[in-house]
Specification:
This protein is an alpha/beta fold and about 575 residues long. It folds into 3 domains: about 160 residues, Alpha-D-Glucose-1,6-Bisphosphate, subunit A, domain 3 (Alpha-D-Glucose-1,6-Bisphosphate, Chain A, domain 3), CATH 3.40.120; about 220 residues, Alpha-D-Glucose-1,6-Bisphosphate, subunit A, domain 3 (Alpha-D-Glucose-1,6-Bisphosphate, Chain A, domain 3); about 120 residues, 2-Layer Sandwich (TATA-Binding Protein). Helix content is about 40%, strand content about 20%. Helix 4 crosses helix 7 and helix 10 packs parallel to helix 15.
Length: about 575
């Protein structure tokens, strides 16, 4: 262990007062656990556009009260430099130590003269994004690690539009954080004292009421759930239960069965180790309940309720709809509703990401709306809404989605919203049911019409310091020694998104000038037959991801290509 790490450990030993952190550090030192100590202290937890995210515990590379306080001091310095009288809205999900981190953050902001609004109980990410806009605060903070396993927590910062901060703001805040001594440089105030002094106040209930009202605004006019329409819902021990049940009641869906083991907030996530609605394992209890109550639809939201997954009863089984498929289904169905309501679909703008399905391109060409592709991260989708709003054309926004189960319909928020997604999914499923179709069958019809666009993801994990070096090595190799083929398919083109290429746009009016994407660490390999692979390091986990895009005239054709791309990508990332 090098001298710098030993110095950090000694500093923490001398300054820790929190009994839990103190005990953990003393245990690691006593056991001479060099590997764990090195990983906990070899760097400071990186602050980026997604804020902080990491494993809970002691050390500079962990999520704890000192790292949160230091980050908040850096944010406070940024806000006081850019706003005359800054204010901040804060929310948290059900994760461990979320309430502790919320109080620490609020106390640091208050000590820096910044007024703070705190949701009095756990609430979803989109409710925080809405609160920033509704209360007109200078920034927002959510204490969440989204769908990560229980040992994680995180700290996301939102700008005054309610979207995640841009690169420039993140860089400035990060630079501020680096200047703050983690023990001596933080100004702080006791939460209860700040509350009593009026520097911190509970977010009024009318803010959440207004959020629900704004979600309902994009409900299909005149929607009525069929008599006896049933939904099984699981919040996966997270934040979704309050808002999801409220919005379903608002649109007249009365028969909602909640998975009892996953209804109450619990940061240990005792019933599923990975509370991610993308995976069937997380939905097992919901599917078990569905076997009893026989619902029309099964839905799940992740712990901070910004992602939504669904399962469809189909021919005696429950079929999961992928994130890309749900996005395509919603996009097509919203076009149907817009056309039915007399709107000009060609004036609409839909937004998705460079790593999401290629199938929306075909929809845009057919329906005539404009499809824009932005970088991964919902802040980029939110920015497109802001551009439309600035041009006085906010009503042109049709929807936005990303393949990782994030959707936004309406302009009430600037982040993905599982509350509105659940509402739209229920209304869409009910509409198709009235036509004698389930959502699986509706998706099959779209595949038959446009072709089978199948997707997949390969995740290669590289934990620790050596892992970070290996991730960099892989991406450098893909740039400096480009591949000529993948899975036997010739490479027909390469886009290095680090160079900031022009934003892809398909169909529609395209009234605005072309846009250039910000540079990002991702590389796209286009392959013969309309197939492709995109390689990209995760922004929140020590992983390199390969996004697979396979196209075929039949499902079997597309599945065969996807399997080959999967095998080849695993070899490339090994």
């Amino acid at each position: 262990m090098n001298a710098e790490i030993l110095e950090k450990i000694q500093l923490w030993q001398e300054n820790l007062t929190d009994p839990e952190l103190k005990e953990e550090l003393e245990g690691l030192v006593a056991a001479n656990n060099e590997e764990a100590l090195n990983d906990a202290f070899y760097r400071s937890l990186a602050f980026g556009t997604a804020g902080l995210r990491g494993v809970l515990g002691v050390g500079t590379n962990r999520m704890n009260i000192h790292v949160v306080a230091q980050a908040t001091q850096g944010l406070a310095d940024y806000l006081n430099a850019h706003y005359e009288a800054p204010t901040v809205a804060i929310a948290r999900d059900s994760r461990l130590h979320g309430e502790d981190f919320q109080k620490i953050a609020a106390g640091v902001l208050a000590a820096n003269g910044i007024r703070v609004y705190v949701y009095p109980r756990i609430e979803p990410v989109p409710a925080l994004s809405f609160a920033v806009r509704h209360l007109k605060t200078s920034a927002g903070i959510v204490l969440t690690a989204s769908h990560n396993p229980a040992p994680y927590n995180g700290y996301k910062v939102y700008n005054d539009n309610g979207g995640q901060i841009a690169n420039e703001a993140a860089d400035e805040i990060s630079a501020n954080i680096e200047k703050v001594d983690i023990f001596e440089g933080v100004r702080s105030m006791n939460f209860d004292e700040a509350l009593a002094a009026g520097l911190v106040e509970w977010t009024p209930e009318e803010v959440l009421d207004a959020f629900i009202a704004n979600v309902k605004k994009v409900s299909v006019p005149g929607f009525t759930a069929a008599e006896g329409y049933k939904v099984v819902y699981t919040p996966l021990n997270g934040t979704g239960i309050e808002c999801v049940t409220r919005i379903l009641e608002e649109i007249g869906v009365k028969d909602v069965a909640i998975v009892p083991e996953q209804a109450e907030p619990d940061g240990h996530f005792p019933t599923c180790s990975y509370p991610n609605p993308e995976f069937r394992e997380a939905l097992e209890l919901a599917l078990k309940l569905a076997e009893e109550v026989k619902p029309n639809l099964v839905v799940a939201t992740d712990p901070d309720a910004d992602r939504m997954g669904a399962a469809i009863p189909h021919k005696g089984d429950y079929v999961l709809i992928s994130g890309n498929e749900m996005g395509v289904l919603m996009m097509d169905w919203l076009c149907q509703q817009a056309a039915k309501g007399g709107e000009n679909v060609a004036e609409k703008v839909a937004v998705t990401t460079i790593v999401s399905s290629v199938m929306p391109d075909a929809l845009a060409e057919d329906w005539g709306f404009e499809l824009r592709r932005v970088l991964t991260g919902f802040k980029y989708l939110g920015d497109q809404i802001d551009q439309l709003k600035d041009a006085g054309e906010e009503d042109r926004f049709l929807m936005g989605f990303e393949e990782s189960y994030g959707y936004l319909v309406g302009t009430h928020a600037r982040d993905k919203d599982a509350i509105v997604a659940t509402m739209i999914c229920v209304e869409m499923a009910s509409d198709y049911a009235a036509r004698g179709m389930d959502l699986y069958e509706a998706m099959e019809e779209l595949y038959k019409k446009y072709g089978y666009y199948l997707n997949g993801t390969v995740n290669a994990s590289f934990p620790g310091e050596t892992g970070a070096a290996r991730m960099a090595e892989i991406m450098t190799g893909l740039r400096e020694k480009p591949l000529s083929e993948i899975a036997g398919l010739a490479v027909t083109g390469v886009t290095d998104f680090a160079t900031g290429p022009e934003m892809p746009r398909v169909g529609g009016l395209q009234k605005e000038a072309p846009q250039v994407l910000p540079g990002t660490n991702a590389i796209e390999y286009r392959l013969e037959g309309g197939n492709k692979v995109i390689f990209r390091p995760s922004g929140t986990e020590p992983k390199v991801k390969a996004y697979l895009f396979a196209k075929g005239e039949t499902r079997a054709d597309a599945e065969a290509v996807r399997a080959k791309l999967d095998e080849a990508s695993k070899a490339i990332l090994s």
